[in-house]
Amino acid sequence: MPNSVRLLCLADLHLGRSSPPLPEGLTATQFTSRAAWEAIVHYAVSPENKIDAVLLCGDAVDQDDLFFETFHVFEKGIRALIDAKIPLIAVTGNHDASVFRKLAQTISSPFFHLLGKDGKWESLLLTLNCRNIRFDGWSFPENHVSYNPLQRYHNDLPSISSTDPVIGLLHCDCPGTALSRYAPVKVQDFDGLPPLAWALGHIHKPTTLYQNPLVFYCGSPQGLDASENGDHGAHLLEILPNHEIKKNFISFAKIRWENIQLSISQTDIDNFEERLIREFSALHASFENHSPFLQAVGCRLTLIGSHSAYRQIPTLIEKMQNRVLFSINSVEYFIEHTQNYTQPSYDLKQLSELSDPAGLLAKQLLALENSLPDVQSILQMTRARLSSAQEKYAYFSQFEVSDEQIKAWLLQSGYQALDLLLSQKEKE
């Protein structure tokens, strides 16, 4: 009976990318892509994990011009795999095409394989754990590719009559639009092709797109910044004797990013930090995979609700910045950023009866909170001004802003203005 074959699949290391700012007490070098790569290599070469090959699906390096900064680190990991006689099968992405080509010229080994050079599909047949496994891969020939590489699959690869399992490697944008410059493909394009499973790179969130054939994004080994929240790592793909495919996620992230929303409405401000620690504890308990690699969790905190001690909130936020707030099972928790959407606990209905500026503002806040007819005209006016700013500054034009987000911004700034108006009246 044939043996199972175990493949460790990863993508989007982005070696060379700077680490996000960390609080005092945490060393940035602990949480780099380099550290994640070294942990993955160590896992792969450890005999107890029985890894037969490593699949790397592009963007190993953050930018082609970081060759000298990243080459040694990347090469060292590859040579460790070679020394352990574990094949590395790779394709390039939109960030690292030239680096990989230089690496392929430097490393000559039967255990290092770069597939699909020059944007042409390529097949590789390897014997792993006494079984023949075929790998089909395509690499970015340059940083931008606007065509669908799957449409060239049959033209580039001859029809092979074989019962050997086939695994596909691809860096692509799925589901990609016609305007995408990152090899746009559709999920249905994988139907009818020989691979039993497709390991993809480009999207940094681990995601399964399709079950038959199995199509999945490996995701980045750890969140590269606070916007890439949730768990990250690699995937163990196991080809069973009957050709069935099993996939298991392995968390390699040494740091992960999470979002916490906290209402202060029923919170005693004097016990705010204790309340926050309870939130950290609940978050830690919710993690499905308690990874031995995890060392820190950075949280984006959103504060909501109304409170009579509203004016003390900025001071509380300042006290939380740039320091570790909580530690559990050797995992350090800190606040990466705080969004303050809290509001003073004013009686808007009573204030709206006033004829002064505070009363007029209270009426508009009531309209926003209760979605009264006036709210649409307020949102339209705000969106018109926002569109003008987006046209002026190209960077902001790429962001789509929902009515709910505009409404949240208006409420936040409106309550701040109302509090300022009323505090001035108190001084009179």
From TrEMBL:
<dbReference type="InterPro" id="IPR029052">
    <property type="entry name" value="Metallo-depent_PP-like"/>
</dbReference>
<dbReference type="InterPro" id="IPR050535">
    <property type="entry name" value="DNA_Repair-Maintenance_Comp"/>
</dbReference>
<protein>
    <recommendedName>
        <fullName>Calcineurin-like phosphoesterase domain-containing protein</fullName>
    </recommendedName>
</protein>
<dbReference type="Pfam" id="PF00149">
    <property type="entry name" value="Metallophos"/>
</dbReference>
<dbReference type="InterPro" id="IPR004843">
    <property type="entry name" value="Calcineurin-like_PHP"/>
</dbReference>
<keyword id="KW-0378">Hydrolase</keyword>
<feature type="domain" description="Calcineurin-like phosphoesterase">
    <location>
        <begin position="6"/>
        <end position="205"/>
    </location>
</feature>
<dbReference type="InterPro" id="IPR041796">
    <property type="entry name" value="Mre11_N"/>
</dbReference>
<dbReference type="GO" id="GO:0016787">
    <property type="term" value="F:hydrolase activity"/>
</dbReference>
